[in-house]
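OP here, attaching both records as promised.
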Amino acid sequence: MASAASHVLLAETWSEEIDPTDWWMSEKLDGVRAYWSGSNFYSRQGNLFHVPDFFKEKLPKVPLDGELWCGRGLFQKCISIVKKQANKVVPEDYKLITYLIFDAPSHGGKYEDRVKFLKANIPENDDKCYATVVGIKKCEGMDHLKRCLADVNNAGGEGIMLRKPGSLYENKRSSTLLKVKTFYDEEALVVGHKPGKGNCTGMLGALECELPNGKRFDCGSGER
């Protein structure tokens, strides 16, 4: 099951040439991608997350795709909890996390059928369930998408995900899943930098920039 975690559906980037009408919208989360095998959580790299039993108790015994999430702007906090080794895990910390589920990889049906399956199998209003299905709404057109994107940005979120209606789950990067983020075209001040990871170890990973309104964002670099 660890190998399956490394073949999850990945998004391409949306461009304005693509009409978003009738696509399904959800908020782009700033959590930790997590594949539920039916018994354990794994990262995209196939690494086991040492999650306490109470957190897994109410999940169905089928594969799920989602993110472990602490809330908007709390990515680093979430990382600090879920990437601890087994002997350093603090079970109480997981009460700060929700598993936000956006797909059922092994279902085999169209997207809408998979969402129905998820809603039927993830308990609601259960204090012992630390998972929920990501909310979606149908896009009414370009203006609707931009309004929703602005609302998410104003609330401190990352962006919008678009899912093509009737699409199947693919174990690869796919044009049926698109990420929509605000593109900034004004001057920004560089206020920090972050080290590269993986193949970019030893390189400059990203510049942290700040707009005149105080909003900060990362700008990828990859320079030595």
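Record two, same layout:
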Amino acid sequence: MTVTRIPLPAINKAIREVCFALEGKCHHSPSWSRMTEDNLWRELVACILGSRVRFEAAHSALERMERRRLFSESRRSTCFQKYEQDVMEALSEPETPDEPNRYPFFRVRSNQIRKAAERLYENGDTLRSFLEGSRDIREARRRLSLEVSGLGPKQASLFLRNIGYTAHVAVLDIHVLTYMNWVGLTEAPIKSVSTVRKYEALEDAFIEHAYSFGYPPDHFDLAVWVVMRVAKEEQKTWE
């Protein structure tokens, strides 16, 4: 467990307050069974774009793709090579005239998005049918991580949480992993988790911890993410 200059009781108190605020706002995930195929694909692409990239850059890239109608069936399901080129052009476009920074890794991500589209749509299948073919959350995550380009266990978990596939899932990003180390759920700091088996073991520990606070893991990990982004910046001022 890493020693932190920020008192853990203060961090946990802030997490409880965020959880309470989420409940007070009736925070509910959408129901994936009622989402359109276009919206399911948009959420999956958002998770591919969000890997190892700051939230603002990923969100801006997603909006540029949306303006170009790159989430529609006619674009994603035909001529995959042209689709990759169109996605790459959208990602490489500057964010704004005042902030001429384009999305990083735009070549890699456009290729991953193209391969994901090929896997899911080439034979007339859908992302919905892919999910319906999975028995439970863990099988769905394993299949997404193994079969869909650009998704590891964390991003697959984020996708499943965001579409409301289940509340019994944790998104173990760097902020949540840091929190787990600070509270003693891991013996040493972990920056990322590359294997599904290791991810599931860490997730079990986090979910048990979340329920000990009285909150479901999908609320609790979001609250941890919010609080830890601030706490880690505060920690830097002490170093």
